[in-house]
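Annex B. Sample input.
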Amino acid sequence: MRLSKTVTHQTGYAGVVDFTFVSGDLALDFAGTVGSRRTDRVELLTGPADLAAWTTAAGLVDVAPDVDERGFADALVLREEVYRLAVAARDGEDYTDLALLNDHAARPPVAVGLGADGGIVRTGDLAAVLATVGRAAVDLLARPLAAQVRECGADTCTRLYVDHSRRGARRWCDMKRCGNRVKASQFRARHA
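Annex B, continued. Sample output.
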């Protein structure tokens, strides 16, 4: 079963940002905070506050960690590294330059505990959040799961996702957004 959700975040810069979690993997959802990488790049993490909001929207921590400019820059470097390695996985290529990812994955992750109400409590600073993302990327990129990494079939979407479909024939990152747009466009073209 694939978890799909969209969380709206009010930014100080551009108004409202929708963080979408449709990739089927935490690391790919983090890489997906950049859209349309080959055309009109859409950056969802425009500053430290956006990254802090993403950490809670992703369900990594219950309270957003403090994020300074250096931590924000480090997170963006990790995000691009995850994307680069996931593209290599998609293309069936060997991985190179793994030091950054492995360094993050080796750090202590977000701490989880049981709350008095029976719920899970998640705590950690930005380093723990990035360690958790790094560990998710390691789990994803380990073969054979890496062979299931795909890129959305919509023309302008560059989002990567894990194809968990039974036949391995999933074409879009999200049927509600990209899939419906492509199908509607094809319908209009056929009836024009």
